[in-house]
Amino acid sequence: MRKRTLLFSIVFMLVIVESFSAIALYILDKGYAIRYLPADKLSEEHVEILDHFLKQDSTYINIDPILGWAPRPNGKTGLYRANPQGLRGVKTYPKYTSKRLRISTFGDSFTHGNDVRFEETWQYEMERLDSTLEALNFGVGGYGLDQTYLRFLQEKEHFNSDIVLVGFMTVDIYRHQNLFRPFFASKTGLPFGKPRFELVNGDLKLTPNPFPTKKHYDELMQSPESHLIQAGENDFYYQRAMKSGPFDFFATIRLLKIASEKLYDRFDDLDTSSLYREEAEPFQLTCRIFYRFCEEVKKSGADPIIILFPNRDHVIRYKQTGENHFSSLYQYFDENNLIYVDLLPLFSEKSEDVINQLIPNHYSAVSNKMVAEYIFQFLDSAEKN
After folding, report:
1. Cα radius of gyration (the chain)
2. Helix-strand-coil percent breakdown of the chain, rounded to 5?
3. Superfamily of domain 44-234+270-384
4. Could you give the maximum distance between any two Cα atoms of the chain, in Å?
5. What DSSP letter does each residue of 64-120 carry, written as one string?
6. Helix pair angle (281-299, 145-155), 10° resolution
């Protein structure tokens, strides 16, 4: 009788714990958008996105065998439109002529101009400031410097330039140890593979995009676990992420996995500041890509200029504490004679309320105009000197 009572009590407590865990998971999902998303599984949202890409061409973004994804020529969706050459905008650019100053801009979403119309991008504003100038927009949302560099290598033969602007945003440094974007950003709208570089004896070794074609994504959807495990072998974020297990049907197990991952992130030193330490692998990798990128631009006959885009958190943190993630990059650039333009001074003197308006997520239309004028002044000053 006593054993039966004890067993009943244990079962009752387990039911209570499991019920509370299920409620906690519901609250986390609905209230905080925190879900159990093991890295070796595809989420329902990502399956839906991939299914769309397999059944039809995207209206704006296409799968790219080398880069992972890229704008589709003549693609269009919402605020975004690509010209017939796959650049953001409506104008088709002719062959290079020395009669006009041609500036090609490469980078991520801050270069692409996410969340604003093409007529509000900083490239458009630069062309408006000087009608003899061409500012080609090769920016792509979600890119790391690795993809940016490889896109330049793809396009340099087709678009000769006088100047190449290399855009880099604060958290791009996270993207350089990643081969499948959901490993790094589990809620991304771009559930695609990407290439990455690794440092081998101080030099760059390319690990190709693990999912270069629609056939690869079809195979991924049919048996996600095996393909994700394989892609995760060279992905830093996969190695540290939670994985599925045989007892995941218990809400308590799923809740504990979420909690352990959050605690790991909380106490681990993987924050933006630590990644910019000179001894950190992401920093060393980023610097090496910058150097190689600028060398290739010079070989093409153009002048490379790095544009540093601080995001909102970067600006506010600098304003509050004086900490500047880019400081270590300044030293590297100066030591290696790499020319750069830091946009932090554009925003750091503003109040936090104004900063939130200028950088609600990406740069606002007003911010893009400020950026255009700032870069234009830098180029004008450099020419005079």
Report:
1. 23
2. 50, 15, 35
3. SGNH hydrolase (3.40.50.1110)
4. 97
5. ETTTEEEEPTT-EETTEEB-TTSSBSSPPP-S--TTSEEEEEE-SHHHHTTTS-GGG
6. 20
**What sign has the CA pseudo-torsion 40, 44, 47, 49?**
negative
Contacts of 224 (CB under 8 A, 6+ apart): 40, 41, 42
Q: How far apart are CA 271 and CA 46, in angstroms?
A: 26
**For residue 267, what pLDDT is reported?**
44
Q: Where do the structural domains in the chain lie, given as residue ranges?
A: 1-34+246-268, 44-234+270-384
* C-alpha distances out from residue 265 to 237, 259, 278, Å: 11, 10, 21
Rounded CA separation 115/126 (Å):
18
Q: Which residues pair with 63 in a beta bridge?
A: 69
Nearest alpha carbon to residue 343 among 310, 320, 380:
310
Nearest by Cα to 230 from 270, 183, 273: 183
CB 271 within 8 A of CB 323: no
State pLDDT tens for residues 273-312: 889 999 999 999 999 999 999 999 999 999 999 999 999 9
Backbone CA torsion sign across 59, 65, 69, 72: negative
Beta 163-169 vs 303-309: how paired, if at all?
Answer: parallel
- Beta-bridge partners for 106: 166
Tokens coding 42:
């595809």
Beta bridge partners of 164: 104, 304
For the segment 140-165, what is each residue's pLDDT rounded down to a tens digit? 999 999 999 999 999 998 899 999 99
Distance, in Å, from the CA atom of 123 to the CA atom of 363, rounded to the nearest integer, reads: 13
> For the whole model, what pTM was predicted?
0.92
Q: Please say whether the dihedral angle defined by the alpha carbons of residues 162, 168, 174 and 175, taken in this order, is positive or negative.
A: negative
b/e sequence 209-220, b meaning 16+ C-beta within 10 Å: bbbbeeebbeeb
Q: Cβ contacts of residue 111 below 8 Å, gap of 6+?
A: 105, 137, 138, 139, 165, 167, 307, 309
